[in-house]
Amino acid sequence: MENSLMKELVFGHKNPDTDAIVAAKAFSYLQNQLGADTEAVALGTPNEETKFVLDYFKEPAPRIIKTAKNEVAAVMLVDHNEAQQSVDDIAEVQVTHVVDHHRIANFETAAPLFYHAEPLGCCSTVIYKLFKQNEVTVPAKLAGLMLSAIISDTLLFKSPTTTAQDEQAVKELAKIAGVDYETYGLDMLKAGTNLGSKTEEELITADAKSFEMGGKKVRIDQVNTVDLNEVFAREAALRTAIEKQNKENGYDLFLLMVTNIMNSDTRLLVVGEPQETVAKAFNVKLVDNKADLPGVVSRKKQVVPPLEKAF
Amino acid sequence: MENSLMKELVFGHKNPDTDAIVAAKAFSYLQNQLGADTEAVALGTPNEETKFVLDYFKEPAPRIIKTAKNEVAAVMLVDHNEAQQSVDDIAEVQVTHVVDHHRIANFETAAPLFYHAEPLGCCSTVIYKLFKQNEVTVPAKLAGLMLSAIISDTLLFKSPTTTAQDEQAVKELAKIAGVDYETYGLDMLKAGTNLGSKTEEELITADAKSFEMGGKKVRIDQVNTVDLNEVFAREAALRTAIEKQNKENGYDLFLLMVTNIMNSDTRLLVVGEPQETVAKAFNVKLVDNKADLPGVVSRKKQVVPPLEKAF
Fold first, then answer.
1. Backbone phi, then psi, for A190, in 5-degree steps?
2. How far is B307 from chain A (nearest CA, A)?
3. pLDDT, tens digit, for every residue of A252-299?
4. CB of B97 closer than 8 Å to CB of B85
5. Which residues have CB under 8 Å from B228's CB, separation 6+?
6. Which of B103, B109, B305 lies nearest to residue A103, judging by beta carbons?
7. Where is the DHHA2 domain (chains A, B) (predicted)?
8. Is A101 annotated to bind ligand?
């Protein structure tokens, strides 16, 4: 990894989840150890789960930025690459580094860059491998943050995105951090399902990502819960909030994935058009705009690819 | 790097140069050592320089393919990522791995993948680093091929794309291959400048790449020589051939870079429109569609970025 001398910002995607926050902190730390001058920032406030993680390891939340060009000429992206998931003025700064574990789309540079992506369950696992390759030691607190991100992204290894390398990384990081990752991990995941205190608008925004598919603006949000019924008791209000967002932001289609983290099933609420493309993508019949998707927990691996294909 | 069990093809860009041919052979060898089932192929016949390299190290030229889907479901790209530089049916196969040293543009996947790019002078240098990371030994013959690619891409370290890592890689590979890289390298570069036997159409095609800039189709070719006058004695015929290609292929703008590898200067011949964007990009006045660009030898680093910016 070659480093420039000018300060750069490092950040994950909008509506940051635990990995987006942690991967930025981890990659910024690694880059600074290698001689760069970087600061980890975020494109939004930490969610409930991430707050639990930051409190547990006594780590401050990152500074939030709305634009980058007013501060720096160059940036490093973690845990995303698609422009619509990045900082609003991403086109006006140079991207020098990307570390990611997603598909590549709607991403373009004018010059060569460092880009490292692997199809692993979590971006923090990819970054952990970069620490090893560069022979940089992971401090105990950062190890705790990184294992939290991996547990979050893999739902404690229940997600089909989980690889042997993610599990191995958590085990190694748990030793450095000195935590019982199974007990801690379940507490952390449950902290993220505290939905009662959230408005409908918060629920449909917190983990939402935008995609362009077949010329349509598609929005996909995921809510983790331990009780599907608790969420669907608010279905009418959720629909109203989604319809409002679709109209205000020009989304053609909104998919709300409500995922039960205890049994790894998802119930889908689909607002907008084309509904039949969603039905085709998952080979299901939508009843009252809803469908159960048993065993589906991963937006990246089980929702985006079939939907992309159906479009 | 995770590997699948199905056979995959590995290839570099259209109009292959030495790096495109060699990087495919090197990455295919590495992947096979790691347990994958791959075959290195090419999207065109080796040029004069590459023929010299393959003859010197007694390595057969790779099989040439026109399409991929008739053979495999998945492919690995080296030394390129832009769709218009890849196999014609690239959209119909899955890209599982990319190793590159160029900008990223016009590249999109539906699923996560292994993507490793670094801003180094040669893709074969990036691959050499992957051999080291994976603790796989480079065989002597492959070492000779890889140092040839690095010398080719960096013009024996004269190109501004050259990094300390490219030089170091050549020195280490030369020890493995048992060659005097300086003497061999100059012989190899000169072999690539044997232009007298080539038609104008061959000259403007051999190393040409297509780009989309500001909605325009831009074609950029580079010809290496030891004597600019030898090439520009054929200017009228070259213009006619370029005008014919622009018309037939819908190129709006064609830049022919004629590069003197002895003193690292380029003379540009610009056919098509907008001419003023080219003048602005390089801060020069085009006289009779030509401009001298002292010290310019790299399309990737010294031509594409300023042109992209001007558009």
1. -65, -35
2. 9
3. 999 999 999 888 899 999 999 999 999 999 999 999 999 999 999 999
4. no
5. B258, B260, B265, B267
6. B109
7. 185-311
8. yes
Residue A43: CB atoms within 10 Å: 23
- List of chain A residues whose C-beta atoms are within 8 Å of the C-beta of residue B1: 118
Angle at A56 between CA A52 and CA A61, to 5 degrees: 65
Q: Is the pLDDT of residue B249 over 50?
A: yes
Other beta carbons within 10 Å of A115? 26
Residue of B nearest to A163 (CA): B2
Contact A102 B112 (CB under 8 A): yes
Residue A103: phi and psi, rounded to 5, are -60, 165
> Taking the CB of residue B126, how many other CB atoms lie within 10 A of it?
25
Q: Apex CA A148: angle with CA A50 and CA A30, to 5°?
A: 100
**Domain B8-191 is classified in which CATH homologous superfamily?**
inorganic pyrophosphatase (n-terminal core) (3.90.1640.10)
Phi-psi region of A155 (alpha: psi -120 to 50; beta: other; left: phi over 0): left
The residues that bridge with A190 in the sheet, in sequence order, are: none
pTM recorded for the entire structure: 0.86
Q: What are phi and psi of A123, to 5 degrees?
A: -65, -30
**Model pLDDT for residues B288-311, shown as the tens digit of each residue:** 999 999 999 999 889 999 999 999
CA distance B181 to B175: 9
Is A292 annotated for ligand binding? no
Domain A200-310 fold:
Diaminopimelate Epimerase; Chain A, domain 1 (3.10.310)
Residue of chain A nearest B105, judged by CA positions: A108
> Cβ of A104 and B111 within 8 Å?
no
Contact A128, A138 (CB under 8 A): yes
Compute the distance between CA of residue A290 and CA of residue B128 in angstroms, rounded to an integer. 51
Q: Which residue, A303, A259, A300, A301, is CA-closest to A277?
A: A303
A155/A186 Cα distance (integer angstroms): 9
For B230, other C-beta atoms within 10 Å of its C-beta total 13
Residue A256 forms beta bridges with which residues?
A221, A269
Q: Which pair of structure tokens corresponds to residue B124?
A: 């074969």
Locate B78 and state its tokens.
């080296």
The SS3 assignment for B295 reads coil
In the numeric block, the tokens 């119930």 are attached to A267
Name the residue facing B119 among A105, A113, A300 (closest C-beta): A113
User: How does DSSP classify residue A139?
Assistant: P
